[in-house]
Amino acid sequence: MDTRIGVDLGGTNIAAAAVDSGGLIVSRVSVPTNAGAGAGAVMEGLLKVCGMIVSDTGCVPESVGIGVPGTVNTAAGEVIFTPNLPVSGVNITDAIRKKLGCPVYLGNDANCAALGEATAGSARGVHCAVMITLGTGLGGGVVVGGKLHTGLSGAAGELGHMVISAGGRRCGCGRLGCWETYASATGLVVTALEAMKSHDSGIMSQMCAGDTSRLDGRLIFKASRVGDKAACIAVAQYISHLAEGIANIINILEPDVICVGGGISQEWNSIEKPLLAAVNLDKYTSHSENVPSTRIVRAELGNDAGIIGAAMLGIL
Question: Are the C-beta atoms of residues 53 and 95 closer than 8 Å to each other?
């Protein structure tokens, strides 16, 4: 069986799957990351999930691909920096390569998600696709001609770190006004807290039992749907910020499709129409007639996108 192992190295769990050449998952496992126990424990978990997949399928994989939430040196198999895992500066591929006797590849997790959607999801069959993931942060990836565009050092695709508000909110990267600080789930919460200072938020406050530390994207959208003033304003501002960044991407790259994934994409029914309307106003070709238009769609693969894309690192 021609299979490859895809691994999603997360802060809480390490998920892995055997994936066939068409992007179909045929077996999957997951173990706790145990990040608090240090790099050695994380490596044990990586080796364990790979061994479990081999035992389950009875096959030595063609390759192993690992998606990491941070910057990586793909050539050296080394994690350059990841904020939530104790493996910065660690080569996490050699031990797996020695154990399984196959090539091992490393990639950024958002890039892997983009590759997964291009292989088997909402961007399959197109020449140029962009993936954005709306979670705690805002990740991105660009696929052209079936291959990831990773740039000179492998760090390309950090779409969340383009500035959309000069001098705006401070980002974890050190810059001010990054798209991530407005269009991530974290950014939505900040926007909601700001709105609560000057607008009625009784419904939203009741939903979080008066504890604003419990606010999250799902609660804010839920409150907006039942008319909470602060939540409605926060959601409208959030969609405007999201549209601004997407319009920038279209104006720079004009891809065939932009896939929107991550936790906030679960609110697609609430987001889609106002988002598309706002993007259409801002994109450079808004006044052009009879020209192809970038499709903006919800990603299809959910949490599987990163695993499938990681498995494809060795062949695409």
Answer: no
Contact 257, 294 (CB under 8 A): yes
Measure the CA–CA gap between 260 and 269, rounded to whole angstroms. Answer: 12
pTM for the structure as a whole: 0.90
CB 28 within 8 A of CB 88: no
For 270, the token pair is: 């609430």
Three-state DSSP at 298 gives strand
pLDDT of 274: 98
Cα maximum dimension of the chain: 61
Q: Are 311 and 4 in contact (CB under 8 A)?
A: yes
Give the pLDDT score at 1.
60
Neighbours of 134 (CB within 10 A): 27
Residue 145, token pair as written in the block: 């001609």
- Give, rounded to a whole angstrom, the gap between the first and last alpha carbons of the chain: 19
Q: Measuring CA to CA, which residue among 263, 262, 247, 252 is closest to residue 296?
A: 247
